[in-house]
Amino acid sequence: MLVRFADEWTSFLPAGAIEPIRHDLGLSYAQAGIVLAALPAGGLLGNLFNIAADHVSRRWLATLGAAGYGAAMIAFGAAHSLLELAGAAFVWGAASDALTSACEVTLVDLSGDRLPGALARMNALASLGDLLGPATLAIASVLAFGWRSLFEGSGVMMLAYGAWLGSQEFPPPHPAVAMRRPMSGVIACLRDRRVVISAILLGLFGVLDEPLVGFTIAYLERVRGFSPAEATMLAMAEIAGALAGFSLFDRLARGRAGARLLSISTAVMICGLPAMVFAPGLVGQVFGAVSFGAAGAVFYARLQGLVLGLRPGQAGATSAVVAYVGMLGLGFPMLAGWVSDAWGLPAGLALYCAVPVILAALVMAAPQRIFRAPLSS
Prior knowledge:
This protein has helices at residues 3-11, 13-16, 18-25, 29-41, 43-52, 58-78, 82-111, 115-142, 147-165, 175-178, 182-190, 193-206, 210-222, 228-247, 249-253, 258-278, 282-308, 315-326, 332-343, 345-365. It is mainly α.
């Protein structure tokens, strides 16, 4: 249950600290986008760990993943070039998949029919980690604590978390699944239309993650004149909304059809994201941030609960397919950075504002039966 808390706390730091990193190393926004894209790009390797979670010891996978995670964070803090930053971020992303997949597949096995509620609670803890990320940056800014020390210290903490995971007991893989060839499970998932459609939606939604927050903070500081602490606090409002959405998910989802819940969520995101970024007053921005965060949390929790429960015993393979399809949005931060360099940060953020519109169109166009999986609390 704690794995996403730890992961979201630390994975926010590159996006949140992108301005001091960019200034220190003399990077353009397009180059900064490469660094931000390198972290999810680690999934090209990390998705193999998602598949492995159905077949190998989850305890060792989680422990070694946390060890690689912490070592990559320390290397990121010590980097002095774009290549070093991107390389450390890539390894960081791959190790993150090993850590989170081992723990999430375990959660799926332990939760049974209570999976959607368990995932909502896990994601609520993840939102607390999201809150700690900006809070950590705000405190570091006030205390004039350099970004390098921040990453290196966080890496040491992740190594300690990995040592603690190594002392825990994890259930073994399902015997019938563990004996199969790993790629057979992936192929079966790729043939499942429900998995592919849901993966496309989750992949597009994944674009609205840490890089969006990083570009928003940069826009608020450089264009709107916010201080670093003020810009980070607005980002925390969005995370607070996500925490509320995850915490209230069971109540909001009960009695509502899956397609209707997703349609309402995307409609709120369509309004909330532009308000968070472009509203002329701080009150409007805070309201937009909270509503966007809450709607995004409900959207994600609904789809994640559906996807991980579609194929019992194959949660790892299903996650791998979702992650590989999600690679479609891998270059989006680089595109947003290039547009920001050419036409300014408002233009780059306008690209992000178009994503919820595309999500809404896809939800309406998809066969409604794929969203009818039962929700249990």
